[in-house]
Every structure is written in C-alpha cells, then in structure tokens.
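User: Second chain of the day. Same drill as before.
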Amino acid sequence: MSRGILITGNDSAVLRAIEAEAGKRVEQYAAAAIHNRLSGNEGKTYSQTQNEHRQYEDSARINANKKQRILLDWNPGSPVTARTLILAAENRLERITEAILVCNPPSIRYAASEIKFADVEVLVNDHIKSWFFLLKELAINFKEKGDGILALVFPETAGVNSKDDTADLFGAIALSSFRTLAQGLLATASQEPYFTMGFSGVYSGDEDDFAAFIFKHIDEKNRRSSGKLFKFGKGFFR
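Assistant: Same format as last time:
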C-alpha cells in the first residue's frame, strides 16, 4: 500500500526541507502551512496571507517538487478546518499513513508594555490551539485505522537572546506549549495503536540533514521508536 504523507507546520526552512525529503519517497504528499499573521503582517486577512504563500510557492526551492505537493487550505485556529484538513488529505491521498507536525514559531520581541492584543489572539489561535485541534483529529483517524505514524518536530529553543535583547515572549510560549504537548503524547504512546515520535535539536542552517534524520527513523517504523524523542544537532546523537 502506498504511503500517504501529510506535512503541516509553520512556514519555514525546516518545513520546506521536510517537504523536499518527502518528495524523495512518494509521488505526491499533502501539505498545509501556518502563515505568520503576527506583527509585520497587521491588517492582513487569512485569505491574504494564504495568497502570499501561494506566490511564494513559485520560488526556485519549492518549484522542484511543486507537482508532488498537494497544497491544502488550513485555518489553524478553527477546529472545523482541522477536521476538514484531514478529510481533504485522505480524499487526495486515499489515506494518511504518516503525519508530520512542525512547530517552528516566529519570534516576536516585545516589551511587556508594547504587547498587542491582536497578536495575543493570533498566538493562541494559530500557534497553540491549532495543534490541539489537529492532534485530536489525527488521533481519531489513526485509532480508527489501528495504525499510523505521528511525528512531532520542534527546535531545541525558540531563539537565543543576548542580554540586551527584548525577550521573545511569543515564540518561546508557542514552543513551550508544543513541547509540553509532545512530551505528554510521547509518555502515553504505548497505550495507542499508532506510533508517536518526537524530533528536536539544533538544526538552524542544517535543515536538510535534519529532515533526512527524521525520515530515517520514520522509514524504519521500529515499534521501539514509538514514545521516543530523537535529538539532532551539535552535541546530540545523529
């Protein structure tokens, strides 16, 4: 049976590297991105950021595997569109055998007095609630089938501040939420009929090797890998 790979996450270099690695293994895969609607993108609607992303898809890096990608719409703050995303991926791929969720949140540095209420809403909806909605739908899907691989991908840190930098409150909060969620899912992986794997580390500038590292473990489909967090990067086993 052919593989059905769904890749979702923050629009970033690591997401595109994972897509490229998936393209080496299947004729088609499904992808959906969380677009950055935080400060710097004020006043833009979801559809406008979606259109900008589609324009970006014509870049040289992505164009090589453009025919392989099935680009799906996803409004990450909506539980309804989480379910719709799963159904759309299955309609195009026949089934989802592997779901790779990539949390690589954007950095927003604010002094406490300068925090924008609109950005708080975006942080909670797009970068925190979205993962809970999507994971619920994937868990239901994989449980019904009795199989599947759930891969949770995130950096070791959300960004390093120097002493003079304003703290990256937003990226750090989003990453902390996803990491805690991942740790909980990994801890209970033995109770589920599907595999759950975590992938983290220091990979900035080394995204291609990190993507290959992720797929190496996914391809093996080793039952003993379920529930494990695999570390990548300097100082980690690779």
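The chain has seven helices and seven strands.

User: Great, on to the next one.
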